[in-house]
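Quick one:
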Amino acid sequence: MSQRKIGVTELVLRDGHQSLLATRMALEDMVEACEDIDKAGYWSVECWGGATYDSCIRFLNEDPWVRLRTFRELMPNTQLQMLLRGQNLLGYRHYEDEVVDRFVQKSAENGMDVFRVFDALNDPRNLERAMKSVVATGKHAQGTICYTISPVHTVEGYVKLAGRLLDMGAQSIAFKDMAALLQPQPAYDIIRGIKETYGEDTQINVHCHSTTGVTLVTLQKAIEAGADVVDTSISSLSLGPGHNPTESFVAMLEGTAFTTDLDQDRLIGIRDHFAKIRPKYKEFESATLVDTDIFASQIPGGMLSNMESQLKAQGAGDRTKEVMDMVPIVKADAGHPPLVTPSSQIVGTQAVFNVLMGPYKRMTAEFTDLMLGYYGESLGERNPDVIKIAEEQSNKPVITDRPANHLPPEWDQLVAETAKLEGNDGTEEDVLTYAMFPNVAPAFFATRDEGPKSVAKTEAQLKAEAEGQAGASTGPISYKVSLGGREHSVKVEPA
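Output:
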């Protein structure tokens, strides 16, 4: 039986630990696995972008550009992949076109190969410049569609959006399911639709989280529909709000018309490495295992925990249910945007405000910008009454063209401001770090020479904790046992 080869993108160096360990993994805990990853036979390894850049400078005193160059050196045979938020790059606002161009160029120079470019609203105008920049560097531009479910999102709509991205120069289409909402049949229908409309040679990569428990089956159906590459994370850092396990995916294809050709011995090496590393980050672990409520609420786990912390800070921790009921209302008023960074935070925070203060009595600056078009166009129609309130509260007009058209040139000013910061090294990379995170970069530059500062527990700390737990259980253990309606205390000596 001839088998079709399915490419695999390994996520453990980026989204794997971002989803399960709050993006806290230090570079020193990844380098030993890089040789096995490089020789396992992956289509690509996602190792940069997303929230890792922010975490490097905010928590780890680590230069993200050094991380990228290190991965390039340690994995010479593998395509390195990053997640790029279109016109937002890796920050939380739109950047002017020259900044976008320079960021993409520097990322390519430092070793990046595959740029997965997405926009929270699926507005192609917010992808256009970044995609064009990637094509200009000669690297792989992957146009990305964020999946969500709403009355206005259809199979035909997703197929049409794929066509717009291909027209922009996308060399592949990534279908990104960040909330584990993508069920097997819709995945089949959408991927089949893209292949039949634009040709069987249109490369489609599928990215699913595992939070709802259905998406390993989704990957199987996606492949049957013609998907070419899927994203997985090594089993020792998988499942929950993370991703489907790489080894499980490989095993699933045994005896079928599909194969990955991944090196099993290398996978075992990668698995064992991260099994050893994971306990060091236990305090950052997500508690979620399976959450099927997401099918109804469409609230990703990270968004839910963010809203809960906001409510607790306001002394309103008992009102989570009200906020969860408010989220779909706010989402509909905003035109049903997919809930992914930054739209998930914007919608979630406004839902909290609505519950605590009354509907739209006070809007966040970000939510007014979302309603007025400054983040781009939503697929659904935005509520005109809420738009009017946003105009009144912000004194800003509605815009309908590409948001970045309203941004003045900013590169020269960013260069000048960075030059004044203690510890800056005079490179464009440092200017870009400051551009992304102007409130965090100055402190990072000032302490960078002190070197990376891991937040993981050391081997000695883990050993002491284990010994402490063992010591605590050396005495007799007390149990309460109920027999015939009477309660008895029983002490049992450990064996």
